[in-house]
Amino acid sequence: MRSKKVFQIQEAALWLLNPLLVVLAIYNEKIEPNLFLQWLGKMHPLFLHFPIVLGILIVVYLVAFQHNRLPLAFEKIALSTNALLTTIVALFGILLAKQDSYDNDLIVWHKWGGVVIALLSWLLLYTMELPIKYKRIIGILFFITIGIFTHKGAQLTHGVNAVSFPQADTLAITPVVLDSNATVYEKAVGPILAQKCVSCHGNEKVKGGLKLNTIDNLLLGGKSGNILAASEGKDAVLFERIHMPLAAEKHMPPDGKLQLTPAEISILSLWIKAGGDIKTKMAQMAKTDSLYLLANAYIPVVEKSKSVKNSYPELTAYNSNYCSVNYLFTGSDEIEVTFFQGSFYNTKALKNLEKIKDQVIHLNMQGMPLTKEDIKIITQFTKLKKLNLNYTKINIEALSEIKKMEQLETLSICGVAVNESSFEKFLNGARFTNINVWSNNISTKQLQALNTKYPKLTIIIGDNLENEFIKLSSPTIDQDSSIIPKHLDIKIKHLLPGIVIRYTTDGSEPDSLTSPQYKNAFRIASNTTIKTKAFKKGWISSDMVQRTFYKSEIKPDTIYLISKPDPKYQASGANTLADYELGGQNFSNGKWLGYKDVTMEFVAGFKQPKLITEAYFNALVDYGSYIMPIVSITVQGSNDGKTFKKITTSNFALPTKPSSMKENKTFSCKFPANSSYRYYKFTVLNIKKLPDWHPGKGTPGWIFIDELFLN
After folding, report:
1. How many Cα atoms within 13 Å fall on the side-chain side of residue 46?
2. Is 196 helix (H, G, I), strand (E, B) or coil?
3. How many Cα atoms sit within 13 Å of 656 on the Cβ side?
4. What is the Cα–Cα distance from 376 to 364, expressed in whole angstroms?
């Protein structure tokens, strides 16, 4: 009797709620839910799994167990409960959709899919007396409906590739753009948006009607309009959202997503405050400008999650000692290609790029001995925007097809054989908007006259590269371990022939004249920082590679943290300090302990008193990301673990002008000769107010520690 009463109540509720659901679905654009209804909407993801599981169980029952049916009263209760839950979850979903902005097509599909599932669940109540074969057909159709429309919900939350097969982890590093036409957007803003914003605002998922995956979409804005322009005394929408507290509902990126670093926030903020101009070039900015300093130092390094599908082709096969092929920035499918060492150039290397020709947008052929065959291949790169043909030993007549390329914006032909007549003929009908030119056969005055004649075309007189030489790639220090047991033999390698490798072990930066030249492996037996660079005549020297090797004679029996690191940077907890695993230069890779608002304190303990003469901390310094040097290290000793006595303090001066924006750095602390205790308490102090020369002046700085070495 009780079950009959429950069924009657649920049946009556369904006759009330399902018509309401249909009405709300039709007129949802006019709904303005109050705070309580907004809160109810947030119950949608909390309860949606219950009707999905119940629905699948009902499908199994309808298809496979109709010859062994349950009592009719139980069937009615199960079906009415499922129908009621499905309807309530669908109602919650409509309320939730009003609070956030999703891809319009997906939300429409998911909304009406939820309505259909609710109505079908309701209809199942009245099909129990049908023949078995019809119930099986209904069950299969019901299962297909659940699968299709719940998948649309997964796509809303996790992107269109929500159930794609997972890919292996890859480490993507943004290449340095040498062309001085590189803009602030290309150097830093675009990569930041690609890494931190496109997952919610790209082709796969569109929240707020906003896409940030291309410049055109960024400028188009979203439902809030232009996100880069301030209005009516308010900050620009993008500026406002990235500065909201993490707990705020409209904070960007949302809580749970990979957050912007302090440096990235500063880059976006300064760029927006400067007008958000996507055409501002790095070369046009003052070298002391805060935005220039931060953007120039910005190198995004991101470990892509195994759950993220990477559909872009691997580029390893296209790279060689004389051709560099890279994605423009992490997350981009656009590619830039640079050829160098013209004496080794072969047309086959250019042909090798034909499989990715529709993705190449920057092509640098400077100094290559090109032929008409090469030019014909280049015209097949239909998406090409920048083309550098400086000093390619080709004449202007051979480039007639190049000027017809529809996507080409900037062409450089410095050193190409040209005179006033042939150049004017070349410009007639050209589709590009910028051209860099220099020739002994055409004067500056003549070029200026042509610039007047073609007002929509910008003629830049002179080489558009900051340097006509190509930068060497860095050497590698070929040693797996960074820990020195008794000694280590160090090998340094470089792929390019004819390279001179120089190195230092005294902390100075290697130069091309006085630093030791690497010829054979050398041995180290104590704490050593090795810095190395590659040099070759006619080339720009490589970036410096630095690596520190640590002598570690003593490992604590136990280690525990007194103060907790920032929740985003807690690595493996206290074990991080004694696992002999160094964090490199990527502070977000889960291998670093990060402290900012609290002071780092921890205790290293031993079973018996241990004599220690020196402690070393391996730290990361990244001024652009507000990660600063350690200010001081204080050590206290104890034999009972309760009463501690001060042993020593080491203070470290903050540089007034950093010589390197990012580096791994060792901070050492020497102990008095009689320091023998069971417990050693370390207090590692970070800077509490950043100096005036830093863009974040007055705010606390971070410290990042990944290892403690004791001797």
Report:
1. 8
2. helix
3. 0
4. 16
Considering the domain 553-710 in this protein, what is its CATH number?
A: 2.60.120.260
Minimal CA–CA distance to 388: which of 397, 398, 378, 380?
A: 378
Classify burial at 164, counting beta carbons within 10 Å of its beta carbon; exposed 0-12, middle 13-18, buried 19 or more. middle
DSSP classification of residue 113: H
Nearest alpha-carbon partner for 550 in 524, 570, 574:
524
Give the CATH class of 316-461. Answer: alpha beta
Q: Running DSSP on this structure, what letter comes out for residue 474?
A: P
Contact status, residue 335 vs residue 361, Cβ threshold 8 Å: yes
Determine the Cα–Cα distance for residues 171 and 304; give it in Å rounded to an integer.
7
Instruction: Please give the CATH topology (third level) of the domain spanning 476-549.
Output: Immunoglobulin-like (2.60.40)
pTM over 0.85: no
The CB density around residue 440, as the number of other CB atoms within 10 Å, is 9
Q: List the beta bridge partners of residue 705.
A: 593, 619
Cα end-to-end span (Å), the chain: 80
For residue 148, the model assigns a pLDDT of 67
Q: Which residues contact 564 (CB under 8 A, 6 or more apart)?
A: 570, 598
| Nearest partner of 583 among 609, 626, 540, 618, judged by Cα | 618
Query: In the structure encoding, which two tokens stand for residue 289, read together?
Result: 């400008």
Residue type, 702: W
- The tens digit of pLDDT for each residue in 300-337 reads 544 433 333 444 567 878 877 678 787 765 556 788 88
**Could you give the CA distance from residue 134 to residue 593 in angstroms, rounded to a whole number?**
62
**Residues making up the chain, counted from first to last:** 711
- Per-domain boundaries in the chain: 2-158, 171-303, 316-461, 476-549, 553-710
Contact between residue 593 and residue 600 where contact means Cβ atoms under 8 Å apart: yes
Q: Which residues contact 426 (CB under 8 A, 6 or more apart)?
A: 396, 399, 400, 403, 418
Across all residues in the chain, what is the average pLDDT?
A: 78
Name which of 554, 543, 546 is nearest 490 in CA terms.
546
50 burial type by CB count under 10 A (0-12 exposed, 13-18 middle, 19+ buried): middle
C-beta separation of 652 from 630 below 8 A: yes
pLDDT at 158 over 80: no
